[in-house]
TrEMBL record:
Gene3D superfamilies: 3.10.20.30, [2Fe-2S]-binding domain. It comes from Streptomyces caelestis. Signal peptide: none annotated. The lineage of its organism: Bacteria, Bacillati, Actinomycetota, Actinomycetes, Kitasatosporales. One of its GO terms (molecular function) is oxidoreductase activity, acting on the aldehyde or oxo group of donors. InterPro entries: 2Fe-2S-bd, 2Fe-2S-bd_dom_sf, 2Fe-2S_ferredoxin-like_sf, 2Fe-2S_ferredoxin-type, 2Fe2S_fd_BS, Aldehyde_Oxdr_Iron-Sulfur, Beta-grasp_dom_sf. This is Oxidoreductase. Pathway: Alkaloid degradation; nicotine degradation.
Length: 178
């Protein structure tokens, strides 16, 4: 049986990626990660495991971090996607987290770095909005920003694996921008 999609297995999908709208006719089986890399040429987002285990494909959808390898792109019709290329809003400089990763030497091979940085952007927003993590004190007042100490940062970034073991410097980089 052919795996070529028939017309009824494709849909027009509008994705705003890094502020730019794109209308794409997509096979329903394709995931966001592949559409970003193959259709839009945004290869900053990396494919590690391709099944939700490593976090290398992390991007932001409507401000929340997601694994791009797990999301069917057609399900995101109308959404705003930010990749590592779009963190600075088109500006020339680096996002403070990108600068902190450089300053702290928070990568070795760098393959996990785009996902780590996008995930950390999501962490700052989640903690700022008062979302608790597994290690947040249950007695802490709900809805208040959660202070990001080392345990919080390690727990919240635990879905992003670094095969080189740059974790101590990654934690320092995130702490620099709190
Ligand atoms: S490539 Fe998506 S989680 Fe590993
Ligand atoms: S810097 Fe190599 S996998 Fe993270």
């Amino acid at each position: 049986m052919s795996s070529e999609p028939t017309p009824e297995h494709r849909s027009d999908t509008v994705l705003t990626v890094n502020g730019k709208p794109h209308t794409l006719r997509l096979d329903h089986r394709r995931v966001l990660l592949d559409v970003l890399r193959e259709d839009l040429g945004l290869t900053g987002t990396k494919k590690g495991c391709d099944h939700g285990q490593c976090g290398a494909c992390t991007v932001l959808v409507d401000g929340r971090r997601v694994n791009g390898c797990l999301l069917l792109a057609v399900s995101l019709d109308g959404c705003d996607v930010i990749t590592v290329e779009g963190l600075t809003d088109g500006g020339d400089g680096l996002h403070p987290l990108q600068q902190a990763f450089l300053d702290r030497d928070a990568f070795q091979c760098g393959y996990c770095t785009p996902g780590q940085i996008c995930s950390a952007v999501g962490v700052l927003a989640e903690a700022g909005a008062g979302h608790p993590s597994h290690v947040t004190d249950p007695a802490a007042p709900s809805g208040r920003p959660v202070p990001l100490d080392e345990a919080e940062i390690r727990e919240r970034l635990s879905g992003n694996l670094c095969r080189c073991g740059a974790y101590p410097h990654i934690v320092e980089a995130v702490r620099d921008v709190i």
